[in-house]
Amino acid sequence: MLSLQFKRLIHSIKKSPVGFAFDIDGVLMQSKNPILPYARDTLTLLQYHKIPFVLLTNGGGQTEASRVSFLNKSLSLKNPLRTSQIVLSHTPMRNLTGKYNRVLVVGGDDPQTREVAQSYGFQEVIRPIDIVREAPNIWPFIRYTREEIQALSKPVDLRQPIDAVFVFNDPRDMGTDTQIVIDALCSENGVLGTRRGIGSSKPSVPIIFSNMDLLWSTGYPIPRFGQGAFRLTIRELYKQLNNAELEDTVLGKPWPVSYTYAENVLNDEWKLLNGDRSGANEIPELGVKPKEQLVENVYMVGDNPQSDISGGNNYGWETILVETGVYKEGDFHKYPTLAKPTFGIFPNVWDGVTSALKRHQVI
Questions:
Q1: d(C-alpha 145, C-alpha 312), whole Å
Q2: pTM
Q3: Please, one GO biological process term (predicted)?
Q4: Distance spanning both ends of the chain, measured CA to CA
């Protein structure tokens, strides 16, 4: 009976003619600085017209609530963003708490990244700084000071195996993180300080990268290396040691898993705008599309053809490319294989979004 009522409720909600998924860095922000007035004015316009939108970013390393709080403060929105409107690169990993218990979480700052994994429900979260505390000579050039180790690390039993390696964000100590991750992947059943005898494509423990962005916009004149550079490093070192390609899993854009997750969030946002809170606290299943699409036309707005535009195109969404981030005029001439936006290239997010809203007669 409840199922029937729920189905009637869903069908009673008129579909939204349009919705948006925004990248953050290079679209709304440049590092810690908002792209004003375009970012604030665009989101305010969508809120005024009750158009559902989600922030879909390959960034991470902090809780969703912390990121949203920072954005609200930076953008000075009259109507603050809700935590439910953001999908960080590692947000879908919250679905894995029932599969892995003791996880090595790499990248991001301490203690924020540990807090993220703990907030998802992982039972034991190990950080590289914990391992350095127990085995100071695991890498000869660690950057951590004694004060940082004392304040930010936790005791860890290195005799116990690690279940999985999660890369939540860009490494802050590339050398140490690289050594520890390779040690875990080539260990005997996940026990650090051991080395298995046979090389294989399948690592001793699974490794999941939250994104594969090689470059990202930081405000520097040219893009900087991102987590994708760390992944390339890990894969090449693993290949050299095992004579085999590493089997790994990658989330984030441009992979479909992030878009299905965002599509579920967009559905929930549209329901909230219509006074329906059903599913507001539910976690979307990995890779599972919503049973019904409540947003008829979704636009992915991004600055990176290799992640935002490629992923949006492949998922069947419309795509808007802006010139305030990674993409620079002339890139398609230099790199002909780059994914091109379906709706167009615009100087900024405001021009792209207002053009789409006019297309659907919203404004």
A1: 43
A2: 0.87
A3: glycerophospholipid biosynthetic process
A4: 41
Contacts of 276 (CB under 8 A, 6+ apart): 9, 13
Q: Give CA–CA dist 115/122, Å, rounded.
A: 10
Letter for the amino acid at 165?
V
Q: How far is CA 302 from CA 29, 193, 196, in A?
A: 11, 42, 43
CB atoms near residue 49 (< 10 Å): 11
Q: Distance (Å, rounded) from C-alpha 180 to C-alpha 111?
A: 18
What structural domains and CATH numbers belong to the chain?
Answer: 18-89+256-360 (3.40.50.1000), 92-250 (3.40.50.1000)
Q: Is 151 helix (H, G, I), strand (E, B) or coil?
A: helix
Interior angle at CA 88, CA 227 and CA 60, nearest 5: 45
> pLDDT by residue (tens digit) across 150-191?
999 999 999 999 999 999 999 999 999 999 999 999 999 999
Distance separating alpha carbons of residues 126 and 102, to the nearest angstrom: 7
Distances (CA, A) of 36 to 26, 73, 344: 12, 13, 21
Q: Which residue has the tokens 């603050």?
A: 80
DSSP state of 37: T
Specify the amino acid at residue 300: M
Which parts of 57-100 are beta strand (E)? 86-87
Which residues of the chain carry a pLDDT beneath 70? Answer: 1-12, 279-281
In the block, tokens 């000075």 appear at 76
> For the segment 83-97, what is each residue's pLDDT rounded down to a tens digit?
999 999 999 999 999
- Please report, as a single letter, which amino acid is at residue 6: F
Q: Which two tokens stand for residue 133?
A: 């505390």
